[in-house]
Amino acid sequence: MRFSFPCRFLLIFSPLLLAIFITSQSTASQFIKCRDKNGNDIFTDDQQQCTVNGKPTQPAVELASNRTAASLTFTVSYKDPQGLIKNKTLYAENIKAAGKAWEQHLAGSATIEILVQVVHDNMGRHSAHSKRSYYVRTIAGKRIYEQGVAFEIRTGIDPNGAEPDLIITTDRKALDGMWLDEEPYQRLKPVAVGKIDSMSVFIHELGHALAFSGWLNINTQSSTENVNYSTYDNNIRFVNGNPYFTGPFAEAVYGGSVPLAFKSNSYAHIGDADKHRGHALENTIMNGIAFYYSRRYNITPLDLAIMHDSGVALNSSSLAFIKRAFHKNASVTATE
Ligand SMILES: [Ca+2]
Ligand SMILES: [Zn+2]
User: Fold this and answer.
1) Is residue 335 part of a domain?
2) Is 124 in the same domain as 98?
3) Labelling 30: which of 60, 66, 190, 317 has CA 20 to 30 A away?
4) 9-50 residue pLDDT tens
């Protein structure tokens, strides 16, 4: 691992570093799976269809994931009026390769439409989110929503048709700071000095669209409306004002509640730069501590455990991979 600058400098002053760590949020749509008045399972954004005589019908049984290896197709389109992405074919190939990196851990099948938009604020920022999120259940008055990309993969349902499922946002400075891998499936070429590895960026960003996203206000420790929560939010507890991920698989891998970013980044990241430098958390693809120049990051069991706890459908071999990483004292009885 090599740094161009002392890492503290990078962390605080490099917009490229901060860039990847900022995530935008999906829309909490009102799509609901319910039973209609004839008792048929339907999937609708029309609340009336889920109401009989003014009372909500019973929610339908949730669709189970089959745990076999996922079969995913990714399409990439661009909104880049100034033509700042020079090699669109290679850029798309990198995004698809990042999708495949997740695919090997997932179960289900879907075609995911990705829109890359280049904005002109020049913040040196990559971000990504599912365009929509879908209702899954209500727990103790909290309405829980799943990221749209995870929903489509898990269920095979495509409720939003031609609309993009996943939005990646970038800008000129972010593009300049990224080294685009010419062989993204192999990931063997040396990453340019002073640049951030494209595959690490895209795998990280797709992780936000799959699970690492939500609507918590870190100060009030609840969602803005105090009603809508993501499946990720639903696993978060605060201790002395700091957010921790408390899903059973994540805790089993880490050996306790997993600290999330607080000061250095959005809480949709693992670890905080203030406290977890040099820590194992720093190696996760979803870490909020630092992405160092010229370094490749990979999906770790902790990243996957958080995905699993957030309801993303992982396949059997990925679950086995997580379990092999369980802390030696961990005992998990949570359902898979
Ligand atoms: Ca779709
Ligand atoms: Zn991020």
Assistant:
1) no
2) yes
3) 66
4) 233 333 334 334 445 566 554 455 666 666 666 666 566 666
Q: Write out the residues surrounding ion ligand 2, Cβ under 5 A.
A: 21, 23
Closest CA to 286 of 98, 14, 151, 146: 98
Residue 327's identity, in one-letter code, is H
Q: How many domains does the chain have?
A: 2
Identify the three-state secondary structure at position 4. coil
Domain range enclosing 45: 31-61
Which ligand has the shortest distance to the CA of 164? Answer: 1
CA of 295 to the centre of ligand 1 (A): 33
Burial group, residue 237, by CB count within 10 angstroms (0-12, 13-18, 19+): exposed
Cα-to-centroid distance, 287 and ligand 2 (Å): 7
Residues 36 and 123 in one domain: no
**Ligand whose nearest atom lies closest to the CA of 202:** 2
Q: Are residues 71 and 16 in the same domain?
A: yes
Task: Determine, yes or no, domain membership for 334.
Answer: no
Q: Compute, in angstroms, the gap from residue 285 CA to the centroid of ligand 2.
A: 9
For residue 166, give the ligand nearest its CA.
1
Which ligand is nearest the CA of 264, by number?
A: 2
Measured from the alpha carbon of residue 163, the closest ligand is: 1
Q: From the CA of 165, which ligand is nearest?
A: 1
Q: Does 179 lie in the same domain as 77?
A: yes
pTM to 2 decimal places: 0.85
Say whether both 131 and 18 belong to one domain: yes
Do residues 146 and 194 share a domain? yes
- Gap from CA of 113 to ligand 1 centroid (Å): 6
